[in-house]
């Protein structure tokens, strides 16, 4: 009878504990990261008798959690993917929204500027029309400055988020290492798994996966090693390595990601992928910098083309045209690690070779090497880097000065990054717009042919030598050009109506059929030519010409290609984020279906354990009744 | 399959959130009328819309340019038509004066009338457009183009005119220079001019003449000298005799160097006539020359007839020139009209393309809104009823 009693008591104790597990499960039905726990019953060893083994009740052998390492890994990897793409899409979305308004976007503003040029061309002596053009120019410059400052704000936001993410990762890795220690100690002392601590640790690893892609390896002592990037160890047992957001050698405001180990920092920026950290690094290099640089390329193009045409023309007062736009210079920076005394001076030389990439100039084995940071390729330079014979490559000229450079010294060259922020209008008065050509061609009064002047322009202010030139027709189709002051023939040619006659940076277009002996005199324009608009057309033509990327792209296309390129990147990130979200959702569902609490299941267990507990209690009573029966039988 | 209670809760919430986000997007599309809000929505469409908008804006600018040029050209056409009327009156007066019987006083009277016609012609040449720019000054639009000083009218405008862009690849002149309209009128028959010397004493009068063999004509100044009423020789500027004759009679034509000039009347010995390479004669100077001729009381009737005849020819040449320029102006106005009408068609099609790419299809969007609304309602109501199901409700 005592065996009935003790067996029943063991049942009572076991079901009480099982009910406690169930109540814990029910209580944690809404706790994120909680894994459902099971009380594992085991029969007590039986007592041997001559007639066989008699069981001696039940015991709870262990309390285990429902957990699967593989499913947890799937959740984490999809979480890293999702938060990487989502961060990318959110950041790039802000930039693409800024650029893509069809009414206020870059292409629309540029066209408004061109339309204002046409309006000036229609009525070149009208000050109100010139004022409109000047206002459009100021609007365009303001727009570029706004874009540039907005991009700087986004950039600063990205840098601060990078630092924030690094801090979070460090907090989590410290926490995981500490939990590893407790779990290993707990397991070693009791032999039982500390389920709550393990849930906590898994939750922290889950959180870590939002910031960066993680890989885990569970050790025999119950601790979990965590790796990021391409195998960089973040947590080993109970010790963790710290990540750091270190300042870029070229720009203190920009950060790289490093792992601190033994007092030295290893740069792992290029190995970081996934998570918000990966997304931020990708959006910085794939969207933010290219947009800033392309806007710079656009600004340099606008300023160069407009200024060149302005300088070839004459303003309303009869003075030579002056540049309309100022643009930010080439940005250069020497690496903070440089030990030599060399300095560089970089200027832009060619619009068609100018790219939207950044470059590094590095002293390697006694020679300077230029590398395109975007493509990673070495760019061939001509020249020797002296002021007389500068290095020429990628549309810039580089002069290396100062002292000697040490091997490994390097410089960052950003030909376009600072241009957009520096775009400003230099003209202060509408009269300064050079709508008129600075030269004029006059038909001699005695001409008998039907040749008329349709345009005369200085197309290249650099090679134009002011003076008086005479185009004389030696036959109806042959002409010669004479410098009137020196009376020397400087050129001859075959005449075609409407085809420009060019010499000394000037271009003169005649139409009709001149007669033999007809002459046309090309000289400085009279200040009375206030109604001349030929230079306004030179401005319009230069803006629509394909002057970029080796003469394949027009200014308007530079802007439109940028919108399209960033739009595609953002769209891809959005659809990847959406796909990863589904994957993550499904992985989370699968994991939760294994590890989560099901209330109906717990209700059923509650009923089961409650009934079993009642039955055990009933057995104790039965044992009492049996004992009473025996006592009363003995006492009679 | 085992489903965790939290899965059911989380999924129901996230699905409802997604449906709400979709509803918000469709509602935003409907309220803005646009389906393309950012380049990320459809990069290719956004790029096309940007390009189409640039084309549209440029096309609208070309129409504005055309209107500007057209209004200028119409002013110019009006001025030229007025100038033709003035020249026609002058021509009528010249015919009236070209009569040997007309008394000198009458001729003087006609000269006075012609002087007024000349004033009118100068005034027409100095007309301004609505902004005060001179129509015929070329690019020197702020400079008075024609000024009369003494017996000559000089042109101070420029010899080039502004162009206006009226289509993506067409630029036309928005005017013509005063030089082309009033000044550069070919003198004589266009190849050479003829004149009798003022000192001639005979009745010989030289006609306009004609080119019979253009290849043989060498531009130069030729002098036909009569040594008797029937004997003449023609020499070039170097003094080389190019032709001579001994049997001249009234009405004969003298031929040399591929040209033919008629002389009527009887020249006296020592009379000379010149045949010179044609230059340009301005309409103003033609009128001024006519006024001088008519005001001169000393001219013989032969000289009068010859000079009035020459003037009449010059007036005709000026009117022909005005006609030619008017025709070119008319052609330019037509080409503006044509390009504007093309632009309207192009703009309509551009707008349609932009609309197709960026505007919402209301029927489709409303259908979508209804579908999404229905889905959300279904999700909400099913959640509400399923959430109530629990075994705990029955465990008493």
Topology:
The complex is a heterodimer of chains A (about 625) and B (about 400).
Chain A: H1 2-27, E1 37-43, E2 47-49, E3 52-54, E4 58-65, H2 69-100, H3 106-122, H4 127-190, H5 195-211, E5 214-218, E6 224-228, E7 232-236, E8 239-240, E9 242-247, E10 255-261, E11 264-267, H6 275-311, E12 313-314, E13 325-326, E14 331-334, E15 342-348, E16 359-364, E17 367-372, E18 378-379, E19 391-393, E20 396-402, E21 410-414, E22 424-425, E23 436-437, E24 439-443, E25 452-458, E26 469-473, E27 478-483, E28 488-494, E29 501-503, E30 506-511, E31 519-524, H7 534-544, E32 546-548, E33 553-554, H8 555-595, H9 599-635
Antiparallel strand pairs in A: 1-4, 2-3, 5-6, 6-7, 7-8, 9-10, 10-11, 12-23, 13-22, 14-21, 15-20, 16-17, 16-21, 17-18, 19-20, 24-31, 25-30, 26-27, 26-31, 27-28, 29-30, 32-33
Helix pairs in contact in A: 1-9, 2-4, 2-5, 2-6, 2-8, 3-4, 3-7, 3-8, 4-5, 4-6, 5-6, 6-7, 6-8
Chain B: H1 5-32, H2 43-97, H3 104-125, E1 146-149, E2 152-155, E3 163-167, E4 170-173, H4 178-183, E5 185-186, E6 192-196, E7 205-206, E8 210-211, E9 221-226, E10 232-235, E11 241-245, E12 253-256, E13 259-264, E14 272-277, E15 280-281, H5 283-295, H6 301-358, H7 362-387
Antiparallel strand pairs in B: 1-2, 3-4, 5-15, 6-14, 7-13, 8-13, 9-10, 9-14, 10-11, 12-13
Helix pairs in contact in B: 1-7, 2-3, 2-5, 2-6, 3-5, 5-6
